[in-house]
Amino acid sequence: MSNNTTIISINNHHDIIAAQTPSWFHFTSGVILLNTTLVSVVSNGFVIFALLVKNRKLQTRTTVYIIAICCLNLLMATFGTPMVVISCFNKLWLFGKSGCTYYGFLMSFGGLASILLLTMISVDRYIYVVKHNLSKHQSTIPIIITITVCFLMTFGFTISPLIGWNQYTYAGVGTSCAIDLVGEKNNGQSFVFALCAIYFALPVSVMIFAYGSVYAKVLKDSKANLGYSRRKAVALQRKEFRKKLTMEQELAVTVIINIGFFLICYVPYACVLLWKVLSKDAEIDPIVISEHDI
Description:
Elements: H1 2-20, H2 23-54, H3 61-79, H4 81-90, H5 96-129, H6 132-135, H7 140-159, E1 168-171, E2 176-179, H8 188-229, H9 234-278, H10 286-293
Antiparallel strand pairs: 1-2
């Protein structure tokens, strides 16, 4: 009886927040998420088709990771995001507590697994460029095993709220669901700390090390090749220098984009998580949480 009362009170609380949220915000959120869903389904479906069917020559170890990420994105866009779109247009979560748990689990699993796969792509690039001898004899089987481990690890982590470690609850303005940010029940605070450590701090550290090592390796090889070219004609040397410089610049931009976009996407969310856990009296506008979901 007490559990039902708690669920009803939580639901009513977010129903009130949803009712107090301006209609334009619900409508705008619904439109943005609807368009994002359509773009995600089309783009990820096209990438999967192109890599698996249309042009198999593009299949490499890295593309196996990309296909896995696209499948996760397609899964979330098809079976998860439409629930929030419908709720936004109705200004209320329409799928009950069970639907909330389902949505929270699905989106958490897809998002967290994608983070691990992005991290493993950086490791794969590190092995291919820096430890090139290791990559010569590497087939796609270790990659498939790695992806499976990432999936199992994330499944174990996201299933934890269903068996007593934290919980999935209504979030934002009451039209979506996520892991409980407050974490006052079911050892939720330890869950949030583990989430930030495993799926934010660790991936960022690995990406910075991997892509930084890749850039340093390319820069070192470029200087070595440039030193050799000094014995050649001046015109050829200048041409080689410009070519190497362009490659270094492109690689530097790639590194900045990979790490930069990851930080842009997840630093605000990680900061909100830690702030909410460390400061129990902190008041966070529900619209802020909803904007991150968008």
